[in-house]
Every structure is written in C-alpha cells, then in structure tokens.
Amino acid sequence: MRTIDDHRRDVTALVGTISASLGSEELSITPAALTGDPAAFAQRVLASDIIAPSSLPSFDNSQMDGYAVLAADLSTATSDAPVRLPVAARVAAGDPFAEHAVGTATPVMTGAPIPAGADAVVPIERADPPVFPAFPELPALSEPSAGGMRPELAPTVGFVDPVEAGTFVRTAGSDIRSGQVLLRRGTRLGAAQLGVIAGTGATSVTVRRRPRVLLISTGHEIRDPGTELLPGQIYDANTPALTFALQSIGCAVTAVPCRSDDAADLLAIVDREAPGVDLVVTVGGVSAGTREVVRDAFGPLGVDFMKVAMQPGGPQGFGLARLSPTRELPVVSLPGNPVSALVSFEAFLRPALLTALGVAPALRESRRGRAAHPFTSPPGSHQLRRGIVHDDGTLELVGGPSSHLLHSYAESTVLVHVPIGTSDVALGDELDYWRIDG
Ligand SMILES: Nc1nc2c(c(=O)[nH]1)N[C@H]1C(S)=C(S)[C@@H](COP(=O)(O)OP(=O)(O)OC[C@H]3O[C@@H](n4cnc5c(N)ncnc54)[C@H](O)[C@@H]3O)O[C@H]1N2
Ligand code: MOO
C-alpha cells in the first residue's frame, strides 16, 4: 500500500530537482516598487540569510513621553517625601544625542535618544505635575537659551516612587544587533519581514526566482466559462482553482488546457511551452478509462502512475518525462475530480514546491480537534474530509466524501484527517486537521 507520506516523499524529491535551477533574483523593496508592482511581492521567499547591517534600535531611546532620570536620584522618593528635580531642556525624537546632568529630570519624548547620564524614564503620567511645563519655561535643546537656563529659574518636577535603572529605555540592539542573522533563507516575505528589512536601511532583498509551472487541465468535455456548453460538457473549474493554488505559494503559472483526449495534442502543448517551464502539472486523465490522455502521453516518456491509499486523490502520477534525448521535465499528475485535485495539491504539490523553495516547515500545521458528530470512513484509505472548526475546537464535516463536491470544499476551512484503519469516527473522537483557509 502506498501511503500519503510515501507519495509526498517521492513527489518532494522529484520537485526538489528544480530547486538549484531556481536561483535567485534581486527585489527592490522601496515604497515606489511596492506600490508600483505589488504582484512582484506576493509569496516571495528569501534566497539567502540577511545579516543585519545595523542594530535595531540603533541607539538607546525612550519608550514613553516622560522624564529621563538617573535612577539613583529617585531612590528615596515616596509619596510623603517626593524627590523634586529641576527640569532640564527637552529632548524630542530626532534630536541629536544630549547630556543629562545628575540631579535633574530631562523631558524626553517617545523615540528620543536617552541623554547620556540618564538610565531610566518616568512616564509623564507618574510625575508631579503630570504635564510638561509649557514653553517658554522649557526651551528645546536647539534653542539658544537651552544650555544657559539658570537652575533656580527652572521649573521642578516631583517623583513619588523610585525607579529601576533601565525602566522604559529601549536599548540599542534589543530587537536585533548589527551582524546577527536578521532573517533566514527560506523565510516567506510578509509585512513584518519587509518592515524590519527596511528598518535596517536595506533597499532590496534577494529572493528565489518563482518556479514556472505549466498547468494543463485535461478533458475533451471541459470548456471555458463564458462559452456555450453542448450536452455533456462542463465548465473548467480546475484551471482557475489550481492556478490560484499554485500562485498562492509563489509559482508563476502558465495555464494551457488540453481539450483533447489525444496524447499528441497534449505533448504538443508541452513541447511548445517547455523552454520556459520548470515543472509540468497536469490535472485529469490518470484513472482507468479507455483513453487517459495524461497516462497515454507521459507513460511512455517515463512518468509513473499509481494509486495512493487516500480518498479523495487516489490516482496519481509523477516522474521525469524524457521529452527528447536532451530535455527532461518533472511532471506531477493530479486526478481530475476538482476536490481530488485540490486535496492532492495540499497533500503533495504544496509541500513539495515549498520545500524546493527552501521553506520549512512545508506542510500545513497539524492541529487536533474533536469530531462534532459521528461519521464513517473507508478503512483502507487515509481520508481527507472537508469541514469547519468551531470556536470550541470541534470539527464538523461539510458535505460528503465524494470528490465532485467542490461547493462543499468552498464552504470548508479545514481538511480533517481520518487515518488508514479507521472505519468509524465517534462523537468526540480526536482527529488531526489542517487549516486551508490561509
Ligand atoms: N474504473 C475506475 N474509475 C475511476 C477510478 C478508478 O480507480 N477506477 N478512480 C476514480 C477516481 S478516485 C478519480 S479521482 C477519477 C480520476 O479521474 P481522472 O484523473 O482520469 O480525471 P477525469 O476522468 O478527466 O475527470 C474526472 C472527473 O472530474 C471532472 N473534471 C475533470 N477536469 C475538470 C475540470 N477542469 N473542471 C471541472 N471538472 C473536471 C470530469 O468531468 C470527471 O467528472 O477517476 C475515477 N474513476
Ligand atoms: O480518489 Mo478520487 O480522487 O476519490 O475521487
């Protein structure tokens, strides 16, 4: 019996052969690039470790609007005997580094550099009075009078509690220190990743080139939405579904459906598109009918077709197709039933392609839930049922097990795993599931 894990291992090894040729490319991350070509940033993966070129924060700064003080100056402060200190010149975010005189309180704003000599910040709300003195009593450092204010004319501020050194000080390098690994290769580039890279001053990143996938959905009865159907014909659900699924993990997809059951027609598409392609993904044409176009086309070229002990998604194929004496292309063949194709994507193609891109873990996170109702499962197969997870962690199936129930899939947020050997699931039984809605 060929298990899901067996098949995933083999498909991952096959798809892994494209990894080296993917190489890398430089991506500008300036705001102009982000707004000018947002699609270029979708689902990108770092090709190499990024070493932090600077520390974040790059200097000690205040976490609060308040007073920078020397903690030792406040050691005796109580509500009965507050410590009163003269207020020094204020330091705002963006001001140059300043000096703090022992025995004074320096007004600092959030993000302002901690003046040398101070080691803690007391938020303004905990000072007496809990508001900053108004100008002109409080000159800014940049103003000529700042350094020359006579201490006896300075306003004072009271503190009723001692403060620990380091309080509300954001120390240099407390997020990341210069020279440390900022982000590892294989990291998927999202909002926070882009933000922190830009925060270190970098203007570009090195990302993996997108895997170029030729997607061929097959079936002579399949037609494009928007065209008229003859009796027996149906609209193509697999091309959009698989195109989007592949794009959602960073692939560049060329979708060329094959509306013929003739292997020569399918191979003509592959020959035409092969020069710009890393991987061929076919959908349909792999089961036991009289004419199975994918088997017929790729079987003789070295692609293997087999049954995996899973439902849906039993019939599968994969292998290196020898297109010519000098050209081989990896091919992954998914079954044509729309739910089977999408479940196969989740179980095999998604983890295989993410692994090829260097992303780990490549598999959806496995979570545990309890069945909200009893149901049955074929014991000879690992079943992947579609469902939803309730707030209390219970799992409710949506629709039946059949692989044509794409609407049920569309209403689902999870794939529920029912392992081989299980024929009856009772109310409350624990099951693994994958979230598929993100
Ligand atoms: N005698 C047997 N028959 C079947 C077996 C089997 O083991 N023995 N396996 C069944 C299973 S399980 C599956 S899954 C399917 C796989 O079939 P194919 O991969 O050959 O796919 P097709 O026959 O081309 O199509 C299956 C089904 O899906 C519909 N389809 C196909 N493409 C699309 C599309 N682009 N959009 C919407 N719907 C599509 C197609 O019309 C068929 O209804 O084989 C079973 N049979
Ligand atoms: O295995 Mo098929 O994919 O159930 O319908």
> How do the strands line up in the largest sheet?
16-13-17-21-20-18
Helix content: 10-25%
Main sheet attributes: strand count, strand direction, barrel closure = 6 strands, mixed
Query: What's the N-to-C terminus distance?
Result: 32 Å
Global Rg: 32 Å
Average pLDDT for all residues: 94
Give the overall silhouette: elongated
Total tally of structural domains: 4
The CATH architecture assignment of the largest domain turns out to be: 3-Layer(aba) Sandwich
Summed up, the helix count is 9
Residue fraction in strands: 25-35%
* Small-molecule binders: ligand LQZAQKY5, molybdate ion
Keywords: Magnesium, Metal-binding, Molybdenum, Molybdenum cofactor biosynthesis, Transferase
Family: Belongs to the MoeA family.
Function: Catalyzes the insertion of molybdate into adenylated molybdopterin with the concomitant release of AMP.
Protein name: Molybdopterin molybdenumtransferase
What does it look like?
With 438 residues, the chain is of the alpha+beta class. The chain folds into four domains: 4-17 and 210-357, MoaB/Mog-like domain (Molybdenum Cofactor Biosythetic Enzyme, Chain A, 3-Layer(aba) Sandwich); 24-57 and 177-208, Molybdopterin biosynthesis moea protein, domain 2; 59-171, Beta Complex (Molybdopterin biosynthesis moeA protein, domain 3); 366-435, MoeA, C-terminal, domain IV (Beta-clip), CATH 2.40.340. Helix content is 19%, strand content 26%. The chain has nine helices and 28 strands. The chain has helices spanning 4-16, 19-22, 31-36, 191-199, 238-247, 263-273, 293-298, 338-356, 406-410, and strands at residues 24-28, 50-51, 61-62, 66-69, 83-86, 106-108, 120-123, 127-128, 156-159, 169-170, 181-183, 204-208, 212-217, 222-223, 234-235, 252-255, 279-283, 304-307, 310-311, 315-324, 327-334, 366-371, 375-376, 382-389, 394-397, 414-418, 424-425, 430-435. The strands form nine sheets. The protein has a six-stranded mixed sheet, sandwiched between helices. α1 (4-16) packs across α8 (338-356). 38% of the residues are buried. The structure holds ligand LQZAQKY5 and molybdate ion.
